[in-house]
Design a protein that fits this description.
This protein is an alpha+beta fold. 56% of the residues lie in helices and 16% in strands. It contains 13 helices and 7 strands. A 7-stranded mixed β-sheet has the order 2-1-6-5-4-3-7, sandwiched between helices. The chain is elongated and about 70 Å long. The N and C termini lie far apart (67 Å).
Amino acid sequence: MNEKNWLADEFEANRTHLRAVAFRMLGSRTEAEDAVQEAWLRLTRSDRSGVDNLAGWLTTVVARICLDMLRSRKTRREEPLELPAHGAIADIASNPEREAAFADSVGIAVLVVLQTLSPAERVAFVLHDMFDLPFEEIATIIGRSAAATRQLASRARRRVSGQAETPEVDLARKRSIAEAFIAASRKGDLEGLIALLAPDAVFRPDATAARTGGVVPLRGVDAVAKMFKGRAQSAEVALVDGEVGLIIRVQGELRVVLSLSFHGDRISAIDAIADADHLSEIGYSAFES
């Protein structure tokens, strides 16, 4: 079998999966087919010598094509013309059990909600919650940090699950919560920290933060509050990838970012990012006084 025939066979073996990815992002079977076809064209034109996982490479390419299509659609203020029937939705043939689960859980209502998400939210949610891609991989597709990608997916998940009625906490309110958190941390005010954290709050350090800061992942308000008691001496509140977070600088150089997730008026998750490569991708700015 020559290379061209082998490539065509491999692509066909992945076509159903790629169509499912594209369909859930775009909500239109016609556009999904267009995205998959564009992925085939890019595959035939690409240097594949460094591709070890063709299925993963194709999924990434389709996701990027869909992201571009969603952004273009948003710019034109257009919506897909199709709204498929529930019975046509379960087309993930790679796993029969998963197929059945999608048939039960993904219906017209979910597709309608997905269309209200921003392109980045939709891609993050679909790839992570529906196709199990890790946030680190999704982050490279949408051009965000892994922590910011996790926040996008979390925000989308709340809206898809029907929690969108809870008003989003605005930046000013988030800033005041973050400032109160720093103040309580510096004073060693454990009760104050507990009051600012959600009951199921989590702390997730990346490998660099865990190694250099001597910290471990934590779950639960008491554990997270105790860990931050007396620690945030040099932290500053800042905009991190457009959201309220905390930054730690040493001699003017960014060393750690604490990406905050909020649920109502409480902090639900703190992601500590210290990896130099990830820090270089993060956009941050100080709040004006």
